[in-house]
Amino acid sequence: MVATVDEGETGGPDSIVEFRKANDSIGLRVVEGQFSLLSRKLYNVFISSAQKQQRPGVNAPTDDPSAESYFWIPLQEVVKDAKYNSNDYETLKAHANELQNIRVEAENSRMWTSERLLSGVKIFNSHGLKSKGGTVWLGFSFPPEVLQMVLKPTVYTRFSLWYQTQLRTASSLALYEVCRRYASSPSHVTNRGKWEGWYYTITGTATTDKNIPEYKYFKRDHLVKSITEINTITDINVELLEFKEGRRVAEIQFKVHLKAQGTFELPSVPIINTEMIDRIVALGVSRDEATQIYSTYDEASVKAHLELVETRQKQSNTQPLGSPAAYFKTAIKNGYANGKPSVVAEPVPPAPAKKKKSLRERFMIARAKDALEHYQKLSFEEQQPLFNAFADSADKSLKPYLKKGLEMALVRNAFGDWLATTLWGQPSDSQILDFLESETDE
């Protein structure tokens, strides 16, 4: 289902009416499903639209009796308010459906609640569901308890949809909502809690998923980037506060202040870059997972890791990737293209010899360096069997130094030679001559 969208001009923070979001619904604990950037934005658009209409059925585009229990909004208006600069309505529909699959838990001093965020989603086209023309409407309904929280919040924070259109990652929007709630509080600090709990809140990951990164990677990939984006774009300044137990960070909280002056108006950016998603899919990732990955990481990081994998695929002198999709997911999760310190130290060039090394020696040194660079790009699970195989076959004189790993030049150089031979076999005369020509070209 594709229709043409007329993109309106980007307004400032006062160009979109504010909406009220109940404080109890900010920073909800997800127990099923996962928030993406677009699903977070869509949900806020739904809340804003429902508060304007105040009751379901007001804009029902069809006389079907079931339509009376839904709030309705033209899909073009959803696109405008979410700044979804794409006419790919199928992806938009998929993210609306994603909201139905998210189950959250909330708890206060008197009550514990487990709810779905949406109880239903409908798509209606005045010219027929499969038609490329007509007016497309999106209908949505809330569970009873959520509906009361949406229409008549008692303790709430005011938000403008404009600021959410400027934020580029789901983590940035989640952290902004939590911190904006505390911007006008006397203490100007959020609650203090274990960083693992904050990880689930900020990333929108279900608490049942125990496969979370170390704190230093959570800080690098989510906290630092989100805080920088929030401080640059929105109406608040956020500062991370860390609390340690011994040498490790155990708890965190955030200090929040409203900015003294309004922020400069910035152009909105597309949430979904379908060309980028197509490149992820080409690696063997499903389109749903590709969209989720794109929405989770900032576009620059996605692009850098795509280029990393695509370049790796084009290299003719390395072993082909068994699974480009798995390699890409591992690479972006661990930040291989983001300057993450490598598990293996960079190979150190050998000390200058008194006499010029032979052509074969120079070739073997260069090939060992290439092998080590290849090894550094592998995941830990891929690296470990290789190093273990090297250790099993290593000369007895080298065994006492193996426990120091590749930090030791002696081990690193021996491993580089072994890995190059394991990957590419014994060098041929033609390969050595080709290397001589490349040296001459340089």
Model description:
The chain folds into three domains: 18-258, Winged helix-like DNA-binding domain superfamily/Winged helix DNA-binding domain (Arc Repressor Mutant, subunit A, Orthogonal Bundle); 274-334, no CATH class; 359-441, no CATH class. Helix content is 45%, strand content 14%. The strands form four sheets. It has a three-stranded antiparallel β-sheet, with no helix packed on it. The model is unreliable at 1-10, 262-271 and 340-354 (pLDDT under 50). With 442 residues, the chain is α+β, with helices and mostly antiparallel strands. It contains 16 helices and eleven strands. It starts with 17 loop residues before the first strand and ends with a helix. Strand 10 (236-245) and strand 11 form a beta hairpin.
Q: Any chance you could write out the topology, listing elements then pairs?
A:
Elements: E1 18-22, E2 29-32, H1 37-53, E3 71-74, H2 75-82, H3 89-100, E4 103-107, E5 112-116, E6 120-125, E7 136-141, H4 144-151, E8 156-160, H5 161-166, H6 170-182, E9 193-194, H7 195-203, H8 215-233, E10 236-245, E11 248-258, H9 274-282, H10 287-296, H11 299-314, H12 324-334, H13 359-376, H14 380-393, H15 409-424, H16 429-441
Antiparallel strand pairs: 1-8, 2-4, 3-7, 4-5, 6-7, 9-11, 10-11
Overall, the morphology is elongated
Please give the number of β-strands.
11
Count the DSSP helices.
Answer: 16
Annotated CATH homologous superfamily of the largest domain: Winged helix-like DNA-binding domain superfamily/Winged helix DNA-binding domain
Q: In which range does the helix fraction lie?
A: 40-55%
Structural class: alpha+beta
Oligomeric state of this protein: single chain
The proportion of residues in beta strands is 5-15%
Label the CATH architecture of the largest domain.
Orthogonal Bundle
**Main beta-sheet annotation:** 3 strands, antiparallel
The ordered string of helix (H) and strand (E) elements is EEHEHHEEEEHEHHEHHEEHHHHHHHH
Domain unit count? 3
CATH class call of the largest domain: Mainly Alpha
Rounded average pLDDT: 76
Poorly predicted sequence stretches spanning 5 or more consecutive residues: 1-10, 262-271, 340-354
Widest sheet, order of strands: 2-4-5
Q: In angstroms, what separates the terminal alpha carbons?
A: 54 Å
The Rg value, from CA coordinates, equals 27 Å
Briefly note the CATH topology name of the largest domain.
Answer: Arc Repressor Mutant, subunit A
